[in-house]
């Protein structure tokens, strides 16, 4: 049975049959894999560029001010006298710098 199926297969169009899977592979690479690699690289560069005084948000949604940095960890002050230590990988984004956030916080509190 298998041999008869192979014998019935159409001959020709070798390049056209190969073109479709290659095109699908290129589309997957440019629309899925490449953007994810770029986001990962951007996040790594952001975490390495953290500085003291930055206002950040962790992955869990905790807002705070960076007060100390090491190679692997970040100490974040979330309230006066309350400091928490996080891995650098737990920092999601930066809200603003200390000076910019201080003036915005003063107008909200007033």
Automatic annotation (TrEMBL):
The keyword Protein transport applies. It is a single-pass membrane protein. The chain crosses the membrane at residues 12-32. It comes from the Bacteria. InterPro entries: Preprotein_translocase_YajC (IPR003849). The keyword Kinase does not apply. Keywords: Cell membrane, Membrane, Protein transport, Translocation, Transmembrane, Transmembrane helix, Transport. Its main location: membrane. It is found in: Cell membrane. Belongs to the YajC family. This is Sec translocon accessory complex subunit YajC. It comes from Hymenobacter glaciei. The gene is yajC.
């Amino acid at each position: 049975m298998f041999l008869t199926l192979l014998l019935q297969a159409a001959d020709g169009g070798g390049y056209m049959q190969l073109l479709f899977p290659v095109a699908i592979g290129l589309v997957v690479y440019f629309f899925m894999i490449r953007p994810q690699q770029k986001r990962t690289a951007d996040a790594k560069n952001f975490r390495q560029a953290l500085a003291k005084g930055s206002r950040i948000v962790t992955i869990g949604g905790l807002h705070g001010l960076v007060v100390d940095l090491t190679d692997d960890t970040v100490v974040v002050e979330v309230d006066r006298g309350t400091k928490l230590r996080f891995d650098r990988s737990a920092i999601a984004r930066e809200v603003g710098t200390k000076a910019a956030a201080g003036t915005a916080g003063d107008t909200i509190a007033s």
